[in-house]
Amino acid sequence: MNNLIQIKKWDDIHAAIILMAFTLSFYLENIIFLVISAFSSFLFLILSQKKFLSQYRPFGGWANWITFSRLLLLLGVSFFHYLLSPLSLFFSFGAVIMLDVIDGAIARKKNLQSDFGLYFDMETDALFVLLVAFVLYTENMIPVWVFIPGLLRYINVAIYSIFRLPAKKEPKRKYASYIAGFLFLALILPFIIPANFSIPILAIASIAVIFSFIISFIQYLKADPL
User: Fold this and answer.
1) For residue 172, what pLDDT is reported?
2) What's the predicted TM-score (pTM) here?
3) Residue 169 vs residues 104, 112, 220, 226: alpha-carbon distances, Å
């Protein structure tokens, strides 16, 4: 349980770092600050959990290695997005999504599920949404509202921290996984289909995510403190 509290504390700091880095990147129109800040924050999480991760073989377990691999792929593609064609971006970000599916399947099959794995995976998913949204906006493929679903996770965590809401284990919501999958797909569609089709799909996915966060907040208030 103490391990979970430590991870939750990192989560609060991580949200603040991402929000500040996003603000700087958005103002300067350069994704580099967001990419470097995210990598540094995740690296700190891994190093701070080294004792826990050393219990697994290989270090951290295969599922977390796959999550780390998709994190690196996500950061790399986002950093060099200006060198890639829309089709290349579609397949590259699509590969990140596929790795997400694989790491979840391995974690369940090998019984490697843990609080670390949950937050590592969840925060990598949140970063995926924000970085792809940043790339879409930078490439003038989508209006500025694309950042709404991208920032929701971080704003949500920041609100919990600012108002000093008690630390609680986030409830598992199976439907949320389907909504997230829909959002992931909606985010990469603008790279291959016209805006008059892709933007409405992304708008619907964004609305679904907003409602999911509202339900999550209600369930959080009902949950027992750690």
Assistant:
1) 63
2) 0.93
3) 19, 18, 8, 7
